TrEMBL record:
Protein name listed in UniProt: Protein disulfide oxidoreductase domain protein
Top-level taxon of the source organism: Eukaryota
UniProt cross-references to SUPFAM superfamilies, sorted A to Z: Thioredoxin-like
GO cellular component, one term: cytoplasm
Natural source organism: Emericellopsis cladophorae
Thioredoxin-like fold domain segment(s): 25-121
Family: Belongs to the FAX family. Belongs to the GST superfamily.
InterPro entries on file: FAX/IsoI-like (IPR026928), Glutathione_S-Trfase (IPR040079), Mito_Protein_Transport_Metaxin (IPR050931), Thioredoxin-like_fold (IPR012336), Thioredoxin-like_sf (IPR036249)
Pfam family, one: GST_N_4
């Protein structure tokens, strides 16, 4: 199936169908990627229970089919020429660099943030992501969600670390991301327009992911990071 940016799909984002950002970095990543291409889409709250992979975000296409996972959704749209391939002109080393940035954020930082949200600031997290669910059901579903998150974080390895170790590792990631962006900004200082993570003139896939995680960190009330508490 070939899609065009004029064909409307619906993004289920796990929050109100408004222009406001939601707490999930993966929702913001997907929406940023669509906006880079001026791809028209609708928003819907959705629910993990209705999602094809039981997680947010997911999309519904005009023919009512659904697809989950932000990366797979983007790949699907790129393969069908509905979105441009942002990494098409990158050299092999640049593609590896781009993939490494995304993996660092999605497969490492995400879990450190998850510990802060679901363990250290659970009540705020529960009342934020489950705001549409009335009491006492919210308390029950929240407990189930937290238990699942704890099991996942322990199996993944984050909860096998001490708090100060997680803080150190999280600080290392953010410090290096900041240094990367500072370098990219300097490399573009003589030119007009935005700067991008790899220092090029156009965004790559890493920029959508990075934007999602930066916004997610800024807007999520349940993320009161240990970095902030320790003054870093």
């Amino acid at each position: 199936m070939t899609m065009s940016p004029t064909q409307r799909l619906t993004v289920s984002r796990g929050g109100p169908a408004t222009n406001s950002y939601v707490w999930s970095p993966f929702v913001t990543k997907l929406e940023a990627r669509l906006r880079f291409a001026a791809f028209s889409y609708s928003r819907d709250a959705g629910s993990p229970r209705s999602a094809p992979k039981r997680k947010i975000p997911y999309v519904q296409f005009p023919d009512a089919t659904t697809l989950g996972d932000s990366t797979l959704i983007i790949k699907y749209l790129v393969e069908r020429d509905a979105l441009p391939d942002l990494n098409a002109t990158l050299k092999p080393a640049q593609k590896a660099h781009d993939l490494a940035i995304r993996a660092l954020l999605e497969d490492k930082l995400y879990f450190y943030h998850g510990k802060e949200k679901w363990c250290d600031n659970y009540t705020t997290m529960r009342d934020g992501v489950l705001a549409a669910i009335p009491w006492p059901m919210r308390m029950i579903i929240g407990y189930i969600a937290q238990r699942g998150a704890i099991q996942m974080l322990y199996g993944q390895g984050t909860l096998r670390l001490q708090d100060d170790e997680i803080t150190m590792l999280m600080a290392e990631i953010w410090d290096n991301v900041e240094a990367l962006l500072q370098e990219a900004k300097v490399s573009r200082k003589e030119e007009q327009g935005p700067f991008w993570a790899l220092g090029g003139k156009e965004p790559t896939e890493a920029d959508a992911t990075l934007f999602g995680f930066v916004v997610g960190a800024l807007v999520c009330d349940a993320w009161v990071p240990s970095l902030e508490r320790t003054g870093q």
